[in-house]
């Protein structure tokens, strides 16, 4: 019987994994973000060597997919840092907002792969970042379900 009619894969077959979505937005990154991508590529290459040594085909397939993603992200990276002489929010800015309830929060606007909202890093394509870009201290912006006032803008580059 042909293998095409057998439901169980043989030991050499690995299910094809879907590619990771690269998105349609430009791949703007900070210097720190570029370093993170480079670090991820190096770590994935190390893990791929270990998976090859263990002959772990599933791990190799997963790691190879992730390597394709990060290598494509690296190839399309456009490094941008905020201009220190501007008084408006821009890519890379560190922005402090005060919410309706009096809470102050600080966010740095970064690239997609660098985003970590829990750590105060928001992607430039996020709704919050889009409402902040181009605004100045004293402006009120939409922030979640409420509003927030921009109370400070730092346009110094982040440390790598």
Write structural notes for this entry:
InterPro entries: GreA/GreB_C_sf (IPR036953), TF_GreA/GreB_CS (IPR018151), Tscrpt_elong_fac_GreA/B_C (IPR001437), Tscrpt_elong_fac_GreA/B_fam (IPR023459). This protein has three helices and seven strands; from the N terminus they run E-H-H-E-E-E-E-H-E-E. With 160 residues, it is of the alpha/beta class. It folds into two domains: 3-79; 94-154, Chitinase A, domain 3 (Roll). The protein has a five-stranded mixed beta sheet. The chain has a two-stranded parallel ribbon with strand order 1-2. Strand 3 (94-99) and strand 4 (104-110) form a beta hairpin. Helix 1 runs antiparallel to helix 2 (57-75). The longest helix has 24 residues, at 31-54. The radius of gyration is 21 Å and the shape is elongated. The model has no long low-confidence stretch (mean pLDDT 86).
Q: Main beta sheet: strand number and arrangement?
A: 5 strands, mixed
Low-confidence stretches: none
Which strand order does the major sheet show?
5-4-3-7-6
The Cα radius of gyration reads 21 Å
Q: Which assembly state applies to the chains in this document?
A: single chain
**Distance between the first and last residues' Cα:** 58 Å
* Total DSSP E strands: 7
Overall SS class? alpha/beta
Question: Which band does the percent of strand residues land in?
Answer: 15-25%
Order of helices and strands: EHHEEEEHEE
How many domain regions? 2
> What is the residue-mean pLDDT, rounded to a whole number?
86
The number of helical segments is 3
| Shape, per Cα inertia axes | elongated
Helix content: 25-40%
């Amino acid at each position: 019987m042909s293998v095409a009619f057998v439901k169980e894969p043989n030991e050499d077959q690995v299910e094809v994994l879907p590619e990771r979505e690269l998105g349609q937005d430009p791949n703007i990154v900070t210097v720190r973000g570029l370093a993170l991508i480079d670090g991820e590529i190096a770590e994935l290459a190390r893990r791929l060597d270990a998976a090859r040594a263990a002959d772990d085909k599933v791990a190799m397939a997963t790691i190879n997919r992730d390597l394709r993603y990060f290598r494509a992200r690296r190839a399309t990276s456009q490094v941008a840092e905020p201009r220190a002489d501007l008084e408006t929010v821009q890519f890379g800015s560190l922005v402090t907002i005060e919410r309706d309830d009096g809470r102050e929060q600080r966010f740095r606007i970064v690239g997609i792969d660098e985003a970590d909202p829990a750590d105060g890093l928001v992607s430039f394509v996020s709704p919050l970042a889009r409402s902040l870009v181009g605004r100045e201290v004293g402006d009120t912006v939409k922030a979640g379900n409420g509003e927030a006032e921009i109370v400070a803008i730092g346009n110094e580059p982040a440390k790598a």
